[in-house]
Amino acid sequence: MKRMLLAFFFCTLAAFAGENPAPANAASACGPAGTNFVVKPGIAAADNITPDSGKAVVYLVGHQVKQGGCLGGRYGCGATARIGVDGQWVGAIKGDMYLPLQVDAGEHHLCVRWQSVFASRSDVITLAKLQLEAGKTYYYRVKILYVGDRDADMDIEPLDEDEARYQMSQNAPAAWSEKK
Predict the structure, then answer these.
(1) How far is CA 14 from the centre of its chain?
(2) pLDDT tens digits, residue range 138-158?
(3) Who's near 122: CB < 8 A, 6+ residues apart?
């Protein structure tokens, strides 16, 4: 129900949107369904990016909450979340990793979709409309919640710069590539 209301909200906003209206199908803010990624911790901190001319920097900071044990270590049991902007995949994060993006200024539609071999998790999507100003930096938390073996949810929320930088200092940037 929450996702249906969110989809309705984004579709309703299309009537008021400017150059980049909300997609008719909210999931179309994501990239192609069959695309999957391999994500590993990056080796260089990517936390001081200066936006190129006409662009903004958006940091997506993963925050994974798992109720129950995990045998995979810090990133080994992390959920992979594919990141889409305006219908194109632009990267992925795993667990508590973070991802910096350079995005053109203006209105954009952000999609975070769980990547899993389990259909119930692959259907977990969260969306946000971003209004970005050139030269500015934005921070968002991508909260990934596991509850037991079957229940899962995600959310995107604005994040204070101080908290974002602290979280990023404790974790690695995401190094991602398309799975072949």
Answers:
(1) 21
(2) 999 999 887 655 567 789 999
(3) 113, 114, 115, 116
